[in-house]
Amino acid sequence: MNTPHLKVKKPRPNLSVVGWMEHIDLPDLSLSRVKVKFDTGARTSALHAMQIQTFTRDGEPWVRFHVDIEVAPPEHWVEAPIFDIRHIKNTGGVPEERIVIQTSIKIAGRTWPIAVSLTDRSNMRLPMIVGRTALKKQNIAVHTRKTNLAADKRHPMPNGQKGFSK
After folding, report:
1. DSSP 115-135
2. Domain ranges in the chain?
3. Which of 51, 111, 127, 129 shows its CA 20 to 30 Å from the CA of 25?
4. 50-57 and 60-66 as β-strands: parallel, antiparallel, unpaired?
5. Does residue 24 contact residue 163 with C-beta atoms inside 8 Å?
């Protein structure tokens, strides 16, 4: 007798509400308190990267880039395996080829892997956007009128600042 295969659903994490602008950690990239915009209108996440260079390590494609953002030391370079190369529409709607890496994001006491495209965001207000694909299956709601809702209350910042402590 054949028994139907039942799909077992993984339990969803508790609902977390984040503001449209938050501070996150990117532990794989050694970056803390990166100011980001949660943008559910964007499919892909994007990180400000300069001087993007591709190279080969152990026969695999890698990328090296400079992270020129206020929370990074002045000469902070990152190296990561290339996860993908995609055509992604920029803010003007024009497709451009971008290198995509996979890294971990940490917010509200939770960490999970996300894909991030690398691009020059020097003309943007924030160095990173987190798109809807990064939020998929994470049970996260974005409050469109609030900021810094995910501040870690267990480790308050000095002088009453909001955000993650290191």
Report:
1. EEEEE--TTSSSSEEEEHHHH
2. 16-160
3. 51
4. antiparallel
5. no
pTM: 0.82
Q: What SS3 state is found at 101?
A: strand
| Beta-strand relationship, 110-119 and 95-107 | antiparallel
Which of 49, 43, 157, 132 is CA-nearest to residue 95?
Answer: 43
Provide the residue count of the chain: 166
**Which residues does residue 142 pair with via DSSP β-bridges, in sequence order?**
18
C-alpha to C-alpha distance for 5 and 122, rounded to whole angstroms: 51
Question: What does the pLDDT profile of the chain (166 residues) look like in tens digits?
Answer: 565 666 777 777 788 899 999 999 999 999 999 999 999 999 999 999 999 999 999 999 999 999 878 887 778 899 999 999 999 988 888 899 999 999 999 998 899 999 999 999 989 999 999 999 999 989 999 999 999 998 754 344 444 433 333 2
Q: Which residue has the tokens 């209108």?
A: 41
* The CATH fold of domain 16-160: Cathepsin D, subunit A; domain 1 (2.40.70)
